[in-house]
Specification:
heterodimer; A: 205 residues; mainly beta; Sulfite Oxidase, Chain A, domain 2; 11 strands; 6% helix; B: 253 residues; alpha/beta; Elongation Factor Tu (Ef-tu), domain 3; Rossmann fold; 2 domains; six-stranded antiparallel β-sheet; six-stranded parallel β-sheet; 12 strands; 19% helix; 32% strand; binds flavin-adenine dinucleotide
Chain lengths: 205, 253
């Protein structure tokens, strides 16, 4: 379709002073809505571990205390959910993917793709190129406070330049893989890559 | 393969123009919009569409709305509740007219879906307009295999806020395998002998089948409602994998 029809009588009700920071089809919110496929798991940090995996073997696992002792990164970013909301200037703290690689003595990533595995069985796939060079952290704090369970606590992946479902909640394992495979939402109608600026919401976008 | 190649490339879900065939007032705050798509290859009960409004100056707004009609029907029904100060829902309720063109695309989503081939029992839990995708499931079940055991626990502020009430009551009267339970949170008739107040664990346990029957749950409504219902179901011992959720937006408390 070349040009969408004008919706008679429709006007923007919003003051969009930050329009340039809104990807197509998104609107600004100041709330922090929640999207997940099922119930929010209750995870105690005492029982929590996170792992880095290559093929069939574990490269490393960290307990909560060990993970907290890794170098910390704080970032302020805009986040974009596929259900249409965008939230500006969110502040997160955690361990960068780069620092995680360093911690296991890798100077570069061993494979081109990563599958993030979460409590509740959810998964999401990402190219490694979208995680390195400061593009992603494993976040444990939001706005200076421990991450709430509904928002993915104790730890979630944060890849702010992609739609927010790629920032997998309740992260437990990052698995390197040589070839791309679709994750949970990616095999249920959502786009494989999810770039909000190209409005890659659904299969085929 | 480049990073952005999908392993299984699907065709794009294209925007299309629907014609508004009818607008039905459901309650004082909710209307159903009956749309004639320009093309439609069917949908699963539970899926949604995205609609897109375009202003004179080119400004656009997109929102998601669940499909309330079953796949057996040729027309699409959307059921929209007014969100005060909202950008899109007041437009759909107050400005949109029969005969108008409405841009949309779909069907979307393959997680929060049910069809009779998946069997049952199914336990549906709705908060407010969260009834919409669940209604598509119930209408589909009625038209195909009404013997599949089902229950609907529907939380609304008052009887007057129950959407599709006549249709639901009629459906439940004729169908021994369907259990219908209303929970009225704010107002109830003086002779009301149904549940008063919010859905709680006791009500859920009573109407959600047993763990041995292994029901599948579909919980839909405002975020706070879905969070509380799904965590109660986990507390009651149901497998989190059997609990599917759809959150419509912020909680109104
Ligand atoms: C998958 C999916 C399916 C949906 N299906 C339906 C449906 O079948 N029927 C339906 O009516 N809605 C449905 N929604 C919600 C719908 O997409 C819009 O969010 C809703 O209509 C509000 O849009 P708006 O432009 O009027 O309000 P906005 O301009 O977006 O918001 C105005 C104000 O209201 C608040 N707000 C936004 N949404 C809600 C809400 N749902 N409840 C309370 N406050 C809110 C906002 O935080 C804001 O402060 C669905 C959402 C999703 C993600």
């Amino acid at each position: 379709m070349d040009r969408p029809p004008v919706s008679r009588g429709f006007k923007s009700r919003r003051q969009v002073s930050e329009a340039a920071r809104l990807p197509p089809g998104q609107y600004l919110t100041t709330d922090f809505p929640v999207l997940s496929a099922g119930p929010t798991p209750e995870i105690r940090v005492a029982d929590w571990k996170i792992a880095l995996q290559l093929g069939g073997s574990l490269l490393e696992t960290w307990t909560w205390d060990e993970f907290e002792a890794l170098p910390q990164t704080t970032i302020t970013v805009d986040i974009h959910c596929v259900t249409k909301w965008t939230k500006l200037n969110t502040v997160w703290q955690g361990v960068s993917f780069d620092d995680l690689l360093k911690a296991v003595g890798l100077s570069e990533p061993p494979d081109a793709f990563v599958m993030a595995h979460c409590d509740g069985g959810y998964t999401t796939n990402l190219p490694v190129a979208d995680l390195v060079a400061g593009k992603a952290i494993i976040a444990t704090r939001y706005d200076g406070l421990p991450l709430a369970p509904a928002h993915g606590g104790p730890a979630r992946l944060l890849v702010p330049h992609l739609y927010f479902w790629k920032s997998a909640k309740w992260l437990r394992r990052l698995r390197f893989m040589p070839r791309d495979e679709p994750g949970f939402w990616e095999s249920r109608g959502y786009h494989n890559y999810g770039d909000p600026w190209r409005e890659q919401r659904y299969d085929g976008d | 393969m480049t990073a952005t190649d999908a392993p299984l490339q699907q065709p794009k879900i294209e925007w299309q123009i629907g014609r508004v065939l009818a607008i039905v007032a459901e309650t004082s705050r909710v209307k159903s919009i009956i749309l004639q798509p320009s093309r439609w290859s069917g949908h699963w009960p539970g899926q949604h569409v995205d609609i897109r409004l375009t202003a004179e100056d080119g400004y656009q707004a997109e929102r998601s709305y669940s499909i309330a009609s079953p796949p057996e029907e040729q027309l699409l029904a959307l059921t929209v509740e007014r969100v005060e100060d909202g950008e899109v829902s007041p437009y759909l309720l107050d400005e949109l007219r029969v005969g108008d063109a409405l841009e949309f695309r779909g069907p979307i989503g393959r997680h929060f879906i049910w069809s009779q081939t998946r069997g049952g029992p199914i336990c549906l839990v709705a908060g407010g307009t969260g009834i919409t995708p669940l209604m598509a499931m119930l209408r589909h079940r009625k038209g195909s295999r009404p013997n599949i055991p089902a229950s609907l626990i529907y939380s609304a502020r008052s009887l007057a806020d129950v959407v599709y009430r006549d249709e639901l009551d009629t459906m439940a009267r004729r169908d021994l395998n369907l259990r219908l339970v209303y929970a009225l949170t704010r107002e109830h008739p003086s002779d009301w002998n149904g549940h008063r107040g919010r859905v709680n664990e006791v009500l859920l346990e009573e109407h959600s089948f047993t763990r041995e029957q292994n029901p599948t749950f579909f919980v839909c409504g405002p975020t706070g409602f879905v969070e509380s219902i799904s965590s109660m179901l986990v507390t009651l011992g149901f497998d989190p994998f059997t609990i599917k959720t759809e959150r419509f937006g912020p909680s109104r408390g």
